[in-house]
Amino acid sequence: MTTLRLVLRRVAATVPMLILVAVLTFAMVSLTPGDPAVIMAGESASPELIEETRESMGLDEPLTVQFVNWVSGAAVGDLGTSFADERPVADLILERLPVTLSLTFGSVLIGLLIAIPAGVFAAVRRGSLADRATIFLTSLGISAPEFFLGLMIVLVFALTLGWFPATGYVPLVEDPGMWALHLVLPCLALGLGVAAELARQVRGSMREVLEHDYIQTARAKGVSTTSVLVKHGLKNAAVPVVTVLGLQVRRLLGGTVVIEQVFIMDGVGDLAVSSVFQRDLPALMGIALVAAVIVLLVNLVVDLSYSYFDPKVRVS
């Protein structure tokens, strides 16, 4: 029941945050230069046609009325109709969401597979060449732009070696093998930055944990090195790592915008870019809302994971 109360409390707390996201997105898009009606009707359209287009798009209403109408629709799952495609925004987002989620969580997986062994090894080999190399490579990975990494990865692994496709996306339901193959390079481009940040955190947390008395006691009792590192060390070092991982998921959602452009993938990030240029207000509002919901869900999972990794953490 305690966990259930926490979940309900966090869900209730998301409501004002979602409203704030909607207000800020609406304000930013509304204040940007340009008239969506002119964009949709064409620069050479007559004033009468532009006015008709504005009325059909609902832009003749006051901004407050437009916002209230959108919020009331969003509350029942109606995110409005796209100005550009004249289709429900919810349908557009749902079509592209699998691409963005595949990129995001595929990158997290790659980051964890690289970061955990690298961070643990560096912590165990404190002061060694491997430790110094890990520090250097993590600094390099954190500072490298995702756009640059994506281009270099395509150049080496797709265009030069020909191991993976350079662009595109294949849905999982159509061909699981090709789905995974098309995700390797973009997930690697995003995942290297995640791996660098997580490896640094794993290294620091493990170094601190390995100095505790209970680790020395376990070793004195003859517990194997693997058991000491995994059961006693890594689990107790996981709380700060999970916190950083939650922050990385939020960053990845923004990073997919760049990577989807590099690898020509029709994800939510690509939809956001086109919506900005077309001043497609309903689409932008819907994308911001969905991104906020994903971030808040990740935060909830991170909070719930604390009590598992650290017995001292209790949900009050």
TrEMBL record:
Keywords: Cell membrane, Membrane, Transmembrane, Transmembrane helix, Transport. One of its GO terms (cellular component) is plasma membrane. The chain crosses the membrane at residues 12-31, 101-124, 136-159, 179-199, 281-302. The keyword Metal-binding does not apply. It is a multi-pass membrane protein. InterPro entries: BPD_transp_1_N, MetI-like, MetI-like_sf. Belongs to the binding-protein-dependent transport system permease family. This is Peptide/nickel transport system permease protein. It comes from Lipingzhangella halophila.
